[in-house]
Amino acid sequence: MTENNKALLSRVFGEVLEQMAFMFADAVDADEPPLPPSSPLLAHMTFRGAMAGRLSLAVTADMCPEIAANLLGTEPEEAADPKVSRDALKELLNVTCGHVLTALAGDQPVFDLTVPQVEELDEELWTAMAAAPETAAMLVDDHPVLLSIELDEKGA
Question: What is the mean pLDDT of residues 83-101?
Answer without folding.
Answer: 97
